[in-house]
Amino acid sequence: MEDSEFEDVLDDWFIESLKTYKDLHVYQLEHPTKVIEWTSEKTVCVAGYTSSKNEILELRLPLKLLADKNKGLCAERDFKVTYGGFTEGAVCCLTHVPGTRCLVTNDGLSSDLQLWELGGDDSDVIRRTGLVQGRSLSDGGSKIAAQLSPSPQVLHGGLISDVLLTELSSGLTVYKLETQSSDRLSSLQFESEAVFLAGCTNGSVYVADTRTSAAPQLLPPPESSHESVQWWADVCAGPHLSCSRLIRLSSVGVAVVSDLRNAGTSVSRAQLDVNAQRSNPDIRVCWSPTLHDYVSVSGFGGVVEIYNVSSWSTDSQVVAESLFQHRGHAVSSNVDVSVVVTAHTWHPERPRTLMSAASDGSVHVWDWVEPHQSA
Amino acid sequence: MTCARRIFIKINVIKIGRTVGACRRFFHAELVRHESSGLPIVHHNQYVCELPVNHRFPMAKFPRVLHFLLKDQVITDKQVWAPKIPSKELLSCVHTEEYLQNFINGNVEEKDQRRTGFPWSQGLVRRCRYETGGTVLAAEVALQRGLACSTAGGTHHAFPSYGSGFCLLNDLAVAAKYVLNNSSKRKVLIVDLDVHQGDGTAFIFKEDPSVFTFSVHCAKNFPLRKQQSDLDVSVQDGLEDKEYLSTVEAHLPHLLQTFRPDLVLYDAGVDPHQEDELGRLRLTDQGLYQRDLYVMKTVVSRGIPVAAVIGGGYSRDIDKLALRHSIVQRAATQVWRECGM
Lengths: 375, 341
Known about the structure:
Number of helices of chain B: 12
Order of helices and strands of chain B: HEEHEHHHHEHEHEEHEHEHH
Largest interface: A-B, 20 and 28 residues
Oligomer: heterodimer
Structural class of chain A: mainly beta
Number of helices of chain A: 3
Number of domains of chain A: 2
CATH architecture of chain B: 3-Layer(aba) Sandwich
Helix content of chain A: under 10%
Strand content of chain B: 5-15%
CATH class of chain B: Alpha Beta
Radius of gyration of chain B: 20 Å
Shape of chain B: globular
Keywords (chain A): WD repeat
Number of strands of chain B: 9
Distance between the termini of chain A: 30 Å
Protein name (chain A): WD repeat-containing protein 73
Structural class of chain B: alpha/beta
InterPro entries (chain A): WD40/YVTN_repeat-like_dom_sf, WD40_repeat_dom_sf, WD40_rpt, Wdr73
Shape of chain A: globular
Helix content of chain B: 40-55%
Largest sheet of chain B: 9 strands, mixed
Strand content of chain A: 35-45%
Distance between the termini of chain B: 47 Å
GO biological process, one term (chain A): cytoplasmic microtubule organization
Radius of gyration of chain A: 20 Å
GO cellular component, one term (chain A): spindle pole
Strand order of the largest sheet of chain A: 18-19-20-21-25
Number of strands of chain A: 29
């Protein structure tokens, strides 16, 4: 596209965004990230994924976004780098241990994890403090989850047979998942202090209780008419008992919602209108932490989509319509290769605030307007 | 005796009526204020229209500007002139027949509506026309009285055949063209200090040597696709009061000296303010006041009439925004006083 044509597109997008967003802030990283992890309600961590040295950064959100009143008084509309460090390899997974200044990363190749500390000793450096060894000898990296109690612990593994729960202070293994299968993991998540879910790329989900030595409960993959699809999962583990749902999304856009309280029976399904040709390991599906029934999806292209699953039925033929599409990354990228959203996340408290990153290094934080309320 | 007196009086009345009628012909106004010796302010209650709930454009600001000027006793209502709605013919000195026809009749495509930022409505058409009429009247009154301000205006993103960025008719262009076509005036200078480039105005007068377009704007703001004014000064993000004023001071006197306009149209946009939601500069209230005072005093002291419009400003706090917009009328009041107008 010619420069002036592209500027026109951006100008059109700007006027449109005034209507569709309450706020929209755009930032450009030197190198793209595949991870966005909250370290507080105002700060996130991102990191590069090239095969050699990468930067790992903690960014503070623009003050203008965070100020609900007196928005005008905040001149600062940019992200600010608060802490930084360097890694030896790519960062494909990054998890913050809640309540600490500790980060855990994995390079997507080996099963070992790197431990980091943010700042400390009045410095603004993110420095390596240790290593957690994984169990697996196979390639493909590990997924990570972390929790603070009963003590700071990290859950990790690349295959379902390698999953370990490691206590950080001692380095001791607190729990080992014993299973015969060796399915590759696509997600690892705590549902509560003692229960975690391990989602596999073949669509099956294991529910394990770390207090018992009993075998984990296995939820079989959703029915799918497609061969060789991959699956990603997210569990909605709100403080209310009623909210214990699982969503699974396939690489061809089939989305299935299941009720964990009811042995994982399928509650609803939908076909999402996605570009299924792309096989992308960075597909993400997330429940909103605050809005019941809201789910976000990215990784199929340059767009992040938000859905309200309450309108989904059990008929999987129905193509679900998204409630909102964040097209900022796709619109503002003027490169020949289509840009892909590599990561996104909901703000832990602000209901409609999300953050997204794309393969061109762009990072956006946006506060979207519910469509029926907009102009 | 009685008959004679009646005839005498009748003759007198006709004479007066003719005079008043002649004055009325010079102004596109619904309400004129010949008897007031104060700064002329142009306002119409039709400057506003209904917009969908939560629409970003701060439509409510226009009546609030007048409200604060009256409440703070900067002006009295005796100074307020009201424009007449401009005819399609008047608007066609800038806009194409096709565009005007479609615009007035609501034949606007969805994608064109989107670029303007407004959903089309009859009310929208009416308020845009009155706003343009307000700028035309301000120009007419400025020519007679030396200085005048509208409580709206500055729709500089409108092009002859399409609207953009909350602008549907280019009021500054229509006012400039009207003055040139209907008076002995030969040159108009448009000083556009809104933080967004006056791209529509620049385009309209690109080949026209009788109108000089001067725009000071932030490079990174909308529109990214810039047009070419006669003089564009593109500034960096974060510019503050002192440097901003120096920038204006570096160009204005020279322009007045070399171009020698017969009229200056001044877009006093407040979006360079640090609290503006869309602008990227850091001016304060004082900075805006000093800027407006400088521009209007510099022009008036050279004996050149100036008509000011409020230009752009974006904030969710309508009262704060309206107060900010009222700065130009306050500065104009001071100029009016100091220059003994």
